[in-house]
Amino acid sequence: MSAELPVFEDTASYYDSSNKKWSPGIFTLRENYFQFQNNDNQRTLRIPLSTICGLEKRQSSFIYAAIVITIGSEKHWFASFSNRDTVYNLLELFWRESLLSKTYKTSPPRQNVGATPLGKELIGILHESETNLVNAANALVHQGRQLQESQMVVEDINTDLNVAEKFLKSFNFIRYFMNVKVSEPKVEEKTVQEDGQQKHFKVTFTFSKASNDSWEKGTLIISDEIVLLDERHNRIAVINKDGLEKIQITTPWEFCLVYSAGWDSKNCYIMCPQLSRLLKFLNCLSSFKYKIVYDEEDSLEDKLVCSSSTSKGNKLRTPSPIEVIKNSSNLIDSTAAQAQVLADDGVISDEDMEEISSVLTNLQVLASEVSREQKNQMEQINSLMTDVEKTELRMKADIKNIKKAT
């Protein structure tokens, strides 16, 4: 269903560098790729989101407000959107999620292979190694998602500290100016939830599905209440369990919050690429899980639940990524050499040799990507540790200033 249903579709124009002219057409964003179709149907441009290297807003005196999408060293210019900010926000949200949510799968086995006993044994060993490497790669993907959530929490803490420090400076200035003794303030602590559960999700949102309304970037915080923040961390909506009427799931990435505001009911439409994880968390909260409603009970619910359970199943027998990479690299080199010798001697059939070469190629690509992902995550962990240390020192300094002021 998700492969057929577009996330967003709008009229646009694309700059054809070969003909040096703008071509009108339809820009379509889907869960894993975007495409541009000319009005005359002579050309279709289709690009996976995972291949995007850069995304930016551009404008010049000769063109309308445009979006420039960088693929490798090539830049693709798109303009004439009805609302450029909406397209940019949605494209950025799903692009960033595609970088974190990339899943790996084993290559499908070919037919008519394993004609010789030795070839069958070698192919079995290779497929088993490929499965272990795929599980390790998916474990790294899950770990990268956890690192992103941790980084978001640190950013939110620093945002709160900015507000607290601003009020503290104002408080100290007024106290010094008036030269009065300030009574000891009572700090009211509000627990987010009895068990301390809280999750943050990057989203885009709108309060109307009309074409002239823009999808804005924001953050959805779920705890004992649902809080929607805009890009500047201003509260847009605060919905408690009594005010929430239902959570309407419309697609695998979109849902609608229906809640009461005074005597009226309001609708807030939200796009979230991590909707399956969001629903999994909501189902753990007794105050919200019974208010989840699916448009198509069988297809949508099964898709969202299965996607989360599959990723959970992959983690059950995940070996160490470093260990898998080393073992796979050694296996690739030795197996390739042995298989070639056996093929030359006629011990392995040509079909088996073809299957072995295919699996070895896939193993090499997987090992390279896992190694690169592990390196990126190590850099991210070091950066996160530095940010946490700076935040800790900042909090200690603020605590000292508060004690002095009181």
TrEMBL record:
<feature type="domain" description="T-SNARE coiled-coil homology">
    <location>
        <begin position="349"/>
        <end position="405"/>
    </location>
</feature>
<dbReference type="GO" id="GO:0019905">
    <property type="term" value="F:syntaxin binding"/>
</dbReference>
<dbReference type="InterPro" id="IPR011993">
    <property type="entry name" value="PH-like_dom_sf"/>
</dbReference>
<dbReference type="GO" id="GO:0005484">
    <property type="term" value="F:SNAP receptor activity"/>
</dbReference>
<dbReference type="GO" id="GO:0098793">
    <property type="term" value="C:presynapse"/>
</dbReference>
<dbReference type="GO" id="GO:0031201">
    <property type="term" value="C:SNARE complex"/>
</dbReference>
<dbReference type="InterPro" id="IPR000727">
    <property type="entry name" value="T_SNARE_dom"/>
</dbReference>
<dbReference type="GO" id="GO:0016082">
    <property type="term" value="P:synaptic vesicle priming"/>
</dbReference>
<comment type="similarity">
    <text>Belongs to the SVAP1 family.</text>
</comment>
<dbReference type="GO" id="GO:0005886">
    <property type="term" value="C:plasma membrane"/>
</dbReference>
<dbReference type="GO" id="GO:0031629">
    <property type="term" value="P:synaptic vesicle fusion to presynaptic active zone membrane"/>
</dbReference>
<protein>
    <recommendedName>
        <fullName>Synaptosomal-associated protein 47</fullName>
    </recommendedName>
</protein>
<keyword id="KW-0677">Repeat</keyword>
